[in-house]
Design a protein that fits this description.
about 900 residues; single chain; about 25% strand; six-stranded mixed sheet; seven-stranded antiparallel sheet; alpha+beta
Length: about 900
Amino acid sequence: MMKKFLLILVLFYSVSSGLAAVKSKPVWLDTSRSFEERAWSLVDEMTLEEKVGQMMNDAPAIKRLDIPAYDWWNEALHGVARSGFATVFPQAIGMAATFDRQQMFQTADIISTEGRAKYHEAVRNNIHRIYYGLTFWSPNINIFRDPRWGRGQETYGEDPYLTGQMGMEFVKGLQGSDPKYFKTVATPKHFAVHSGPEPERHKFDAVPCKRDLYETYLPAFEDLIVRAKAYSIMGAYNSVDGESASASQLLLQDILRNKWGFEGFVVSDCGAIGDIWQHHKIVATAAEAAALGARRGCDLNCGGTYAALVEAVKLGYIDEAEIDLNIYRLIMAKMKLGMFDPDDMVEYSQIPYSINDSAEHSAAALAMARKSIVLLKNQNETLPLDKAKIKTIAVVGPNADNIDSLLGNYNGTPSTPVTVLAGIEKEAGQNIKVIYAQGCDLAEGFVDINQPDLEKPVFKTDRSGATDGLTARYYNNIRLQGEPVLVRVENDINYDWQILSPVEKELSQGILSRDKAVNRDNISVSWSGVLVAPDRADAKMLVGSDDGIRVYIDDKLVFEDWTTHAFRIKTIAPELTPGQSYDFKVEYFEGQSEARVMVGWEAAGQKSDSKFEEALELARSADVVVYVGGLTAQIEGEEMPVNYPGFAGGDRTDISLPAPQQKMLEALQATGKPVVFVMLTGSAIACPWVQDNISAIVCGWYPGQSGGTAVADVLFGKYNPAGRLPVTFYNSTDQLGSFEDYNMDGKTYRYFKGQPQYAFGFGLSYTNFAYDSLKVSKKKAAAADKIEVSFRVTNTGKVDGDEVVQLYVRDVESDLVMPIKQLRGFERIHLKAGESKKVKMYIKPENDMRYYEPRQEKFTVEPGDFEIQIGSASDNIRLRQIITVK
C-alpha cells in the first residue's frame, strides 16, 4: 500500500513539475503565439541597458533571457563574404551587365543558401561573431551617376529601372519564399542619395532637386522595399539636404515609414551615427546624436554611438518607450529568421554545410560570369580566336595573372580562383603555346601590396642546410604562449589568410585533423631556422604584416612593428655578408579580421623597363596578343588611402586608361600583331585610342572565381557574349560635370547630350539579329491603360546566341525637362542560328511615362506623344512607334 502511495506521489510531482515547466515557458519562446506577441513580451523583459546593447551591430548575449550573442553585420554583395571559402560571383556591376533577372535570382538564392549553411555551422560551433549572421547588408542599389565614384562597382549601374529590376530579384533570392520565415534578410543600401565623393562622405551634404530625388535616386529603393519586401534598409554616411541620411525625417519617416509602409528595421552605415555630431555637426554630443537617430527610426547602429542612449534617456533626449519600438523591430527580424524557434520548425536550418562552395554553385558562378561579359569591339572578326591558325598566344598585362582583378570589393574567398592567364592556358590546350609577361604596372606609381616585386629568400631549417624551409609554430593566442597547436616546416613566409584560418583549406580537405585547427582570429606564429643571405650586398628586405611582426637575425631584433594595424610593407637593410648563413626568426600575431604576413627580398634591377621589354619581345614572337588590364579594387573602392595619378581616396580623378597601360597597349599595337584587350574593371574606362586602334575589346568586369574560364570561353568562341553595358562609357573626363553636383542634368544616358564612347545598353555578339513586326496594342491610351508591345527577333547569323532586347520610352515634345529616353523594359532571349522569337512587353503610362511634380508632391503624366523604342542598346534603336497619352 505504501509503495502504491509513493508511486502516486512521484507521478503527482512529475506531472506538477511538467505543468509548471510548461506554464513557466517564456512567451517569446512559445511558438503557438504570434511573432508580434512574442517580440513585445521579450521587449518587456529587457532592461534599458540590455535594449541598448541589442541596438548595436555586435549585440551581446543576455544569459538570463537565454539570448545568444549576435552580430548583425554580414556581407553578401556577390557571394557570402569574409567567413571562409564561398562561391564568388562577378562583382555587382558585372551581374547587372547580364540583363538577366532569372540568373540574378538564382545567384542570390545560392548566396542565401550558403549563408544559411555557414550560420548554422557557426552556431553548432558556438560562433556568434561578425560575418556569420543571417542579416546581409546587400545589395547596393545607389545610382552610379558618375564613373569617378570608386564604389560604383558595387551597384547595378546608372539606370533606376534596371537597378530596381535586378535588385528585386536579388532581394527575393536572399529572403526566400517561405510564408513564415525569411531565408536571410536583405538590406538595400545606402538610402537614398549616396554616390561619392568617398573622401568627403562623412561630412558631405548631397542636395539633388526634388525631381531628381524622386525620379532617379528613390525608384529602385521603392521597388525593393514596396514590391520585393526587403525587410531591412541601410542609411548613408552623408547628409541629404541638411539631414543625416541615417537620421532623416524626410527619408526614414515621411517616405520610408509613412509613404511606403515599411515595417522592417533600419541600420546605419558603420559609424554614421557618430558622424551626426562629429562631422555633420547637426548636434553637439554623442547622446544627442544617438537620440536623434533612434527617434527618427534608425533601429540599429553599426558602431558604438548608441551606447550613449542610456545617458540620452537620463537626460531626457528620448524616452525609453521610443527605444522599445526600435528594439521590437530588431527582435521581429530575429523571430522571422527563426532564431527563437526549434530547428525542426525552420526548413532553412536543414541546409547542409557541405553545399557551401559546391560544384553546382561553381557552375552557376561560371554561367553568371559568361553572361556578364560585354564584347565592345571585334574588328575583322578577330574573335573568336581560331585554334587551327594560332600556334602562340602572348598574354600580357597586370591583370592577367592577378586574383584581385577577379574579385572586386566586398568579396568572398574562392577556394579555386581561375585567373585569365590560367583560363587561356587551359582552353588553348597542348597544341597552342601560351607565353606570359606582366608588361606594366596597373597605374603610375602603383605598388601592388598583393603582388610586390619579391625575391624568395633561401631558408634552411638548421645550419646543416640539408632541409629547405623554416619551422613554423602556430598558437591559438596572440602571445606565442603555451604549446603550439600546430608545428610544421614551411618553405616561405608569404601568406594572405584574410579572415580565414591559416589551415582552412587543409581542414576542409581533410588533410589536417580538427585537433590541429588554428583559429581565424587571435593567433600568433613563430618561424625559425636559417637565412642564407642573397648574393647582392645591397639587398633590402621587404617586411609586410597585418597585424604585428618582429624579425630577428642572429638573435638580434632588427625590425619590430608589434601593433594592430592594416597591412603595410616596410623596407629594412640588414648588414649581411652575401652567401653567409644566419639564424633567423620571425614572430607574428593577428588580432581581428584580416591576417597577412610577408617577408622577402626586394627584387633587383630596373623592373619597369625590363617588364615592358619582356612583354614586347614575347608579343613579337606570338601570333596574337591578349592584353589583360583595366583596374582592380586596390585602386578604386571605398574610402581608400590611395593617391596615384588619376586616383584619390578610392575615387578616380581621371577616367582614362592609366598611363602605363596606355603606353603598353600602344607598343603592343606597334608590333603589328593583332591585339585583344580584356578589360577587367568596376567602372567605365575612357579609352578612345584603344577603340580606334586595337583589334578587339572585351569587358569582363571583376568576373568572380571563374572569371578566367569565362573570358577564355568567350575568346575562343566556346561562349557567344551578350552582356550589355549598365553604364555609359564616356570619351574623357572632360565630358563629365561636377562630381559633387547631385542634380542629374548632363549625367548618364538619360540626360547626357554628348557622344559617348559606348552607350548604355551596348554590347556586340558573334552573330547578328534582325527586328521586325512591331505591334502596339493601343496608339491612344489613358494613364492607367496597360499597353502590349510585341515584335519579332531573328538570329540572322550562323552562331547560336543571346540577344538583350530593350524597350525605351521618349517624350516626343514636352514643356518639362524630361529624360532624353528611359529604359522601361528588357529581356534576354536565346536564339539558335536562323531562329525567330516573338517578344511581348507591357507598359503603363502612369508607371513608365510619369514625372514628379514638386508643387503637388506627386507623380503625374503629361498628356502628349511618346515614342516607344525597341532595340539592342540605347543608341541602336531598330523599331519605333508613336503613341498618344490622353
